[in-house]
Design brief:
The protein is mainly α and 130 residues long. 70% of the residues lie in helices and 0% in strands. It contains 7 helices and no strands.
Length: 130
């Protein structure tokens, strides 16, 4: 059931990306790449590898920006805000922020809510296969 809800949210998010002209897939590719890198960041966080977590979220900045530019859907802006937060959080503050920060929890809900079923990317330098 959770997979269905996430898939429906992805479809709704990317459906708003067509903007009047034909959809060339830019928003979907940006969403997939953002979420793949974000899930890689989450995996690194779960391994307590905070420098790697930051690296993954920094790599997700460009596709998250492309997604936010490609759609008027506020969820794209929320995802960009979450990626920016995790990319900028110093490694030595990750554990404490996880335990105490309402911002961390809010961005965690956004990231996992939108990208929960995404497959992690192997490398933050991985190029899109488009």
């Amino acid at each position: 059931m959770r997979s269905f809800a996430v898939a429906a949210a992805v479809l709704a998010l990317t459906a708003g990306c067509t903007g009047g002209g034909g959809d060339d897939g830019t928003a979907q590719r940006a969403f997939d790449q953002t979420c793949g890198l974000g899930r890689s960041g989450v995996a690194a966080f779960n391994e307590n590898d905070f420098p790697e977590t930051i690296e993954r979220f920094q790599a997700a900045l460009d596709p998250a920006r492309r997604l936010a530019d490609a759609t008027d859907d506020p969820r794209a802006d929320e995802l960009l805000e979450a990626v920016e937060y995790y990319a900028a959080l110093p490694a030595d503050q990750y554990r404490r922020a996880f335990e105490t920060s309402p911002d961390f929890k809010r961005h965690q809900a956004t990231t996992l809510g939108q990208c929960g079923d995404a497959q992690p990317e192997d490398s933050p330098d991985q190029e899109s296969q488009t």
